[in-house]
Amino acid sequence: MMLRHGAILKQLLDRARDLPSIVAIGAYGSTAAKTWTTHSDLDLIVIMAQDAPVNSLHFFIEDIPVDLSLKQREAWTSGNYGWLPPEAITPLWDPEGLFTGVQPPAASLSEAKQYRYAHRHRLFKLTKWIGRDDDVADLLAAGATHWIAVSWFHARELRFPGIDHAVPYWRVHEPAMIDLLIGAARERHDRLERITRASELALAPVGGLWSEGEVHITGWDGLPSAAEASRAKAFLAHLLGKGTLPA
Question: Which of 93, 126, 133, 158 has the fewest Cβ atoms within 10 angstroms?
Answer without folding.
Answer: 133
